[in-house]
Design a protein that fits this description.
Helix content of chain A: 55-70%
Radius of gyration of chain A: 17 Å
Largest sheet of chain B: 4 strands, mixed
Largest sheet of chain A: 2 strands, antiparallel
Order of helices and strands of chain A: HHEEHEEHHHHH
Strand content of chain B: 5-15%
CATH superfamily of the largest domain in chain A: Winged helix-like DNA-binding domain superfamily/Winged helix DNA-binding domain
Number of helices of chain A: 8
Structural class of chain A: mainly alpha
Oligomer: heterodimer
Strand order of the largest sheet of chain B: 3-4-7-8
Strand order of the largest sheet of chain A: 1-2
Number of strands of chain B: 9
Number of strands of chain A: 4
Radius of gyration of chain B: 22 Å
Number of helices of chain B: 21
Distance between the termini of chain B: 60 Å
CATH topology of the largest domain in chain A: Arc Repressor Mutant, subunit A
CATH class of the largest domain in chain A: Mainly Alpha
Shape of chain A: globular
Strand content of chain A: 5-15%
Shape of chain B: globular
CATH architecture of the largest domain in chain A: Orthogonal Bundle
Distance between the termini of chain A: 36 Å
Helix content of chain B: 40-55%
Largest interface: A-B, 46 and 46 residues
Amino acid sequence: MDINRMVLILIKNLVDMGFKPGRTQLQKYGYFMLERFDSRSIHTPYYYGPFSTEVEQSVHDLVSLGLVNESFELIPELDTVEYPGRKYQYALTAKGEKVSQKILDENRAECEKVEAMVKNLVELVGKYPQRLINAAKIHYILKSHKLRKNPSPEELRNCARDYGWKIRLESVENGIEFLRKAGFLSPQSIA
Amino acid sequence: MELRDPIYGFIEYNDHERSIIDSPVFQRLRHVRQLAMAHYVYPGANHTRFEHSLGVMHVADKMGEYLGLGKEARRLVRLAGLLHDIGHGPFGHVSEEVFKAIGTKQQSDSNIYKFHENLTARIIKSKNSLASYLDDDAERIADLIDPMGKPSIEKEIVSSPYDADKMDYLLRDSYFCGVKYGVFDYDRLIMMLSPFEKKRVMVKYEGIPCFEQYVVAKYFINTQVYRHKIRLITDAMLKRGILLSIGENDYLKRLYAYHDSDEYLEEYLKSCDAEVIRLGSIGDSNGAKIFKFIQSRKLFKRVFQIRANQIDDKLISTGIMGQIENPDLEKISRVENNVARLFGVDPDFTILNIYRLGFTAGEAAEIGKVFVLIDDIPNLIQDYSTICRDYNQELSSVFIEIYLPLELETQDREDFCRSKRNEIKSYLNVFAS
């Protein structure tokens, strides 16, 4: 399945679970989806955590095809006179529903794997979206940073600082647990 | 020391930089044109990676100065700017595309997608090429050029949505093409950038209009220069000519059979545009014929063009968009064979080109990484600028085109192609699954 189809299925799953996904949410669920299903994916470390140009591009594509609807609401607390801020949300259009159904029919096994992964992550996130963001940051550090084997949470927190990511020690520990439960970390890989 | 430059007036350089500039590895860039065959449509576009690299060094320094870097950090960003393109092969991005196509065929090296950066780092660190000029700096410069790894202001100057490379090529390409599309207020844009937490570069709130001008400039130069019809056709012909010839032309076979060794680098670092055309055109193979067509400017004609989002069946559209990153060579070849049969030409001379309007990989999506500082808090610029959002959405547009040799006058050709349009569209159904 190519990236556009995967992202469409990701949005469908999130919407079906009652979410109105925004950019950051799509980036972070997209991060784990690509990590699991596309070994060639490349993420760069940006301010909010690992960033995938491919996921961002894919959302643009799906909007331009009329499969995904992009809506926004103004951000009142950051509203400025010259440039009012917007918070974007994404949902499937009727056309997007039809196309995603066809993709599901043709790629049943792959789509079920994506769905299972998303459900698992949603359960682990619970009411705290920051958990997903922290988990993505920790996973990125473990993957990209040349750390000694079995790094401690303190080492991970210090590495995060190098990326400009401030994570409390407790959140690092929770993030490690999150990654273990989500199957993104082997039980022995962290001290 | 200083040299004259048409964009900035004078570019200063020191003795160490001069030794690098004078090295054979750097001098090779004089023979790699910045815009490949764009001089076939804009005769002035004969500038090379050489002067562009000098320009990037100059802009990187200016950005470093404004963003408050110390002397040592500025020395390094100057060198990184100078060397950022050292890994470019003949015709720049055409060579990258060839390596990518070969990598896709072999399905062997996932890093082929970062090929240019990897090769650049390899050249910088190799004792036989540049390391002897750089000593301890080699590792640090290679790290600055690598878009992965820990963020820093130096890294953002070298590689980011507003890096010194982009600033220079927009201004320089506009100048040499003789167009005004890529022009933006470069001094002001640099002043409107701000360091953030000593790791990142962000746009000041009052810099939004200036950044918008830069985004619009990028959009227009993409539509009018980088994605000009003739540029697209010549790039596609070069790529096809090289790919067809690799099997039988010893020079091209050696040049594009990448392997991580000093012997390979030595060969690669002798390559240039003219050599590929001259040696590629030897013989009577179809690949050689394409090089001869290019030499005599007998270019293929565009016989079909459609935007992916204009195709009614969106399953086909998404399948086509997926070809950009992961091309399915068998499906592409099926479409080319069908079109070749329809027009009665050799399939080797029938090229299906799927591309985004934004020239560099991920260019449009990179806007998602640009932050604007409002009351010292980072916010995504696309949430505050409809211009940035909309122009980048447009840069994401995907086009499907087909080129082949067709000896008809313009009006007859257009009528003939129109009569074949529906049939060609039906061939694209192959991308539905």
